[in-house]
């Protein structure tokens, strides 16, 4: 069974589907809030460095406005807010190497930062933005399940994959309870060639959970053990090196959809879609469209799907009824046909059909190439 789709360039439906709890593709304006704690005495240095960054970000496509505020109670606390036409251009900018390079001077004068991102749902005076075509308001609130989803990805040196997989599979699980309001629910780790993807699910505060995990002795030991195998050097004992590494490794969730059907024996799988240069966001949008369209079909083997995307790295985490091998290849792969796969990805494609002339046969072959190897999948009790 193959499916059809709307063109990948079109936004998802303006009326939010009740199946979708998270998406960056509805065309809504985005408000980004950055809380900054500046070292005592470094306020002037911070302001001057910020001015250089601000003058550049004003020219970034999709950027609408920027505002810098200083606390009236504590001069070490600052607030940066920016507004964007929609989430995709912001995500493209914040994940770029140019952004990593430009914010680096801020690190010497900043003790801590916290980034929050919101779609604009309602406002009292939005006429100017609406009249100038600077994005829309989110049509209706999304109803989530209380779970925050995030992933990290990095590559290891070719030839070291087996050693890395063994290290990552063999460590004690960290304590799931972070604090009174935050709990680790699930950690799923996959590999595809020399690429590692670690996806986590958290209830509560994602940042608190990430810090909690990083402090666990068993996790620190594993991170140190895999350091020699990494393609990108890092020193987690050096705050600047660790910050740059985790900034580049961040793989944010851009879309989550559920079919609303519980299956206790569903299998978790991850698929890796290496996008053609510049096509990562477009590919993620197409996958989101396909998953959203299929969510109401009771024959759909995919019970839920989370799409992660950064630059040209796209990963789709799915829970599948009956297992991936028995699934219909079109909804399992999330792509409508081999031609679209060839257009947007570097997955090896043939003529668009197998020897028997079957489009499904070609999609099944693509599914096998995209399939990631499971390293570990750990769920906290009562998660």
How many helix segments?
12
Cα(first) to Cα(last) distance is 34 Å
Structural class: alpha+beta
Percent helix range: 25-40%
Global mean pLDDT: 88
User: Topology as H/E string?
Assistant: EEHEEHHEHEHEEHHHEEHEEHHHE
Radius of gyration: 21 Å
Low-confidence stretches: 1-14, 352-357
Q: How many β-strands, per DSSP? A: 13
Shape: globular
Describe this protein's structure:
This protein is α+β, with helices and mostly antiparallel strands. Helix content is 30%, strand content 28%. The strands form 2 sheets. Strands 1, 6, 7, 8, 9, 10, 11, 12 and 13 form a 9-stranded antiparallel sheet that branches. The longest helix has 15 residues, at 43-57. The two termini are 34 Å apart.
Quick structural overview:
The chain is 30% helix and 28% strand.
Comma- or semicolon-separated keywords:
383 residues, alpha+beta, four-stranded antiparallel beta sheet
Walk me through the topology.
Blueprint: E1 20-23, E2 30-38, H1 43-57, E3 63-70, E4 77-84, H2 87-94, H3 97-103, E5 110-119, H4 127-131, E6 148-155, H5 161-169, E7 183-192, E8 195-203, H6 206-215, H7 217-226, H8 239-249, E9 250-258, E10 267-274, H9 280-294, E11 302-310, E12 313-320, H10 329-333, H11 338-344, H12 359-370, E13 373-379
Antiparallel strand pairs: 1-9, 2-4, 2-5, 3-4, 6-8, 6-9, 7-8, 7-13, 9-11, 10-12, 11-12
């Amino acid at each position: 069974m193959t499916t059809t789709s709307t063109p990948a360039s079109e936004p998802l439906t303006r009326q939010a589907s009740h199946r979708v709890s998270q998406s960056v593709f509805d065309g809504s304006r985005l408000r980004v809030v950055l809380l900054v704690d500046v070292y005592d005495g470094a306020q002037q240095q911070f302001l001057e460095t910020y001015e250089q960054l601000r003058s550049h970000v004003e020219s970034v496509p999709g950027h609408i406005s920027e505002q810098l505020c200083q606390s009236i109670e504590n001069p070490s606390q600052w607030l940066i807010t920016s507004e964007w036409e929609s989430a995709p251009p912001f995500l493209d900018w914040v994940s770029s190497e140019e952004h990593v390079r430009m914010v680096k001077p801020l690190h010497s004068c900043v003790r801590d930062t916290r980034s929050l991102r919101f779609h604009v749902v309602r406002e009292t005076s939005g006429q100017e933005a609406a009249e100038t075509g600077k994005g829309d308001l989110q049509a209706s609130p999304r109803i989530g399940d209380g779970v925050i989803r995030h992933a990290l990805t990095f590559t290891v040196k070719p030839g070291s994959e087996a050693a890395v997989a063994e290290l990552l599979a063999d460590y004690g699980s960290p304590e799931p309870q972070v604090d009174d309001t935050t709990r680790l629910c699930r950690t799923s780790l996959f590999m595809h060639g020399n690429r590692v993807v670690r996806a986590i699910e958290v209830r509560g505060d994602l940042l608190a959970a990430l810090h909690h995990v990083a402090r666990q002795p068993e996790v620190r030991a594993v991170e140190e053990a895999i350091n020699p195998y990494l393609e990108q050097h890092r020193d987690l004992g050096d705050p600047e090196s660790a910050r740059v590494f985790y900034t580049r490794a961040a793989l944010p969730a851009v879309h989550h959809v559920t079919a609303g059907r519980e299956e206790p024996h569903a299998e978790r799988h991850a698929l890796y879609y290496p996008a053609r240069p510049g096509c990562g966001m477009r590919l993620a949008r197409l996958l989101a469209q396909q998953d959203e369209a299929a969510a109401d079909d009771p024959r759909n083997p995919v019970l839920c799907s989370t799409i992660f995307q950064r630059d040209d790295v796209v990963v789709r985490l799915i829970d599948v009824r009956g297992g991936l091998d028995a699934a219909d290849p079109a909804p399992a792969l999330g792509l409508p046909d081999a031609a679209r796969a060839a257009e947007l990805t570097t997955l090896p494609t043939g003529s668009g059909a197998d020897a028997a002339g079957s489009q499904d046969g070609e999609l099944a072959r693509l599914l096998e190439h995209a399939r990631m190897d499971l390293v570990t999948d750990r769920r906290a009790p009562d998660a």
